[in-house]
Amino acid sequence: MNLIDLTIAQLHEGFKKKQFTSAEVTKAYLDEIKKTDGEIGAYLNITEKLALEQAEKADKIISSSKNFPMLTGVPFCVKDAILVEGEKATAGSKMLENYVAPYDATVIRKLKELGGVILGKTNMDCFGFGSSTENSAFKVTKNPHDTSRVAGGSSGGSAAGVAAKESCWALAEDTGGSIRQPASFCGVVGLKPTYGTVSRYGVYAYASSLDQIGPMGRTVEDVVTVFKAISGKDPMDATSVDYEFKEVNVAMKGLKIGVPKEYFAKGINPEVETIIKQAIKKAEEAGATIVEITLPATEYALACYYIIAPCEASTNLARFDGIKYALSEPGDNLLDVYLKTRAAGFNAEAKRRIIIGTHALSSGYYDAYYKKAQEVRQLVREDFQNAFEKVDVIFAPVSPFPAFKIGEKTDDPLAMYLADIYTISLNLAGIPGISLPAGKIGKLPVGLQIIGNHFEDNKILAVAEHMEKLLQ
Ligand code: GLN
Q1: What pLDDT is recorded for position 61?
Q2: Alpha carbon separation from 378 to 367, 383, 393, 429 (Å, rounded)
Q3: 286-302 residues labelled b (16+ CB within 10 A) or e (exposed)
Q4: What is the pLDDT of residue 417?
Q5: Cβ neighbours around 407 below 10 Å, total
Q6: 420 CB under 6 A from ligand 1?
């Protein structure tokens, strides 16, 4: 038995039966990271000392109680946007290159309390800006299925870490697709929960009305386990809601699955389309009813997102002024410090977003861009509300194409933004979506996206468990 092949559920069983210890599993992962991460580049920082200490603690819990939590002793990795006390948290940026987190994010506090083992912090596009992890200030994460290709982004490190068996599961963050798209590219399961179900206290804010933390794992069951553990109201995050995950029984027979016609119109790679259509066919054969639906605002969603997200990002990044914390470049006067710090700390993509955001929020342009985008956002929401009056869940692609070549889109930001076409609408509407491996084009995985109404995360997870079996 290879310890790094096991899921959370299998590790839990093994711990219970005393087949192996958390320290052994943790060492197996640390060895694998040392062996393969030079090539893959999933990690920015390996927290070996912390991991070994946590594993030892977990082994004490395991040996002294029969009923310990599912995540006790299970090693995982964390997107570098999420704070782990005493460890660096760079958000993939030069600005925070040497920043050490003074406290734990709420999700980390919860996972520590359950006896989880943190292997390290994973690579990402700086501040979450990107779809390929090529915008990291430090390195490009490679796709474990084909190292000439990207792992996706912005949580490319987390997805590649799980896919390369350098971690059992991962924590990531999704503002416009950053959990689902890299999960799809790397062939792992990734959940973006309903907005507000998971606390964001201790995660760098990219776009506060869109950001959501969620899990990546090898199976839907594992993702459910983590989601249960991290969700719920947090007094430290006013946007978090009183949510408790409850299992539901959902039968494929009689399930109404909506398929948005706009998602199969133009621009989708024909092989991706075939894989998604085959998955829909399997659901139909299992007794589901397929209903064509329309999401007419889809054509404006990308433009709407790329106004709202940069507006919120430009405001959130204003705190990096070289004075309060993080990077500070010496200058002749205060303005000089601001200018030099921001010139050195932000890369081209961050600067692009700040310029777009501040422009769209400036007096004279606010009504034309930001206000208009908020109106379009309402239309995107209404599209989904209308759809969910007719169907239980929606099936869609995650990305129009599989993992692309490293460097292929770096000179063309607009081409990169198109990678988010099927994922951003969910963030604009605040609804949940999961990416589930559905097939492969050659070596390259392709994910199916299952979308649900607000707080029906349990429903999409139940459907995903059925689909996982049907797609095997
Ligand atoms: N690729 C999208 C962007 O660049 C989404 C990123 C994210 O979800 N953090 O904004």
Answers
A1: 97
A2: 15, 9, 20, 8
A3: eebebeebebebbebbb
A4: 87
A5: 12
A6: yes
The answer to whether the CB of 227 is under 6 A from ligand 1 is no
At 309, which helix (H) or strand (E)?
A: helix 298-316
Rounded Cα distance, 220 and 436, in Å: 8
Range of the domain at 109: 1-472
Structure tokens at 208: 């506060």
Is residue 80 within 8 Å of residue 108, measured between CB atoms? Answer: no
Instruction: Tell me the CA–centroid distance for residue 154 and ligand 1, in Å.
Output: 6
List per-block mean pLDDT (blocks of 10 residues) for the chain, which spans 472 residues.
96 97 98 98 98 98 95 98 98 98 98 98 98 98 98 98 98 98 98 98 98 98 98 98 96 98 92 98 98 96 97 97 95 97 97 97 94 98 98 98 96 87 97 98 98 98 98 92
3-state secondary structure of 425: helix
CA 51/CA 211 separation, integer angstroms: 27
Q: Is the Cβ–Cβ distance between 62 and 21 less than 8 Å?
A: yes
Residues catalogued as catalytic: 79, 154, 178
SS3 369: helix
Question: Quick one: pLDDT at residue 413?
Answer: 86
Q: What is the reported pLDDT for 47?
A: 98
Question: In terms of Cα–Cα distance, which of 92, 84, 180 is closest to 436?
Answer: 180
Q: Which amino acid is at 460?
A: I
- Distance (angstroms) between ligand 1 centre and the Cα of 174 equals 7
Distance 16 CA to ligand 1 centre (A): 39
Cβ 131 under 6 angstroms from ligand 1: yes
- Give the angle subtended at the CA of 451 by the CAs of 447 and 455, to the nearest 5°: 135
Number of domains in the chain: 1
Phi and psi torsions of 213, nearest 5° = -85, 145
Residue with tokens 């692009």: 352
Among 394, 38, 12, which residue's Cα sits nearest to residue 168?
Answer: 12
pLDDT at 414: 85
Which CATH number do you get for residue 78? 3.90.1300.10
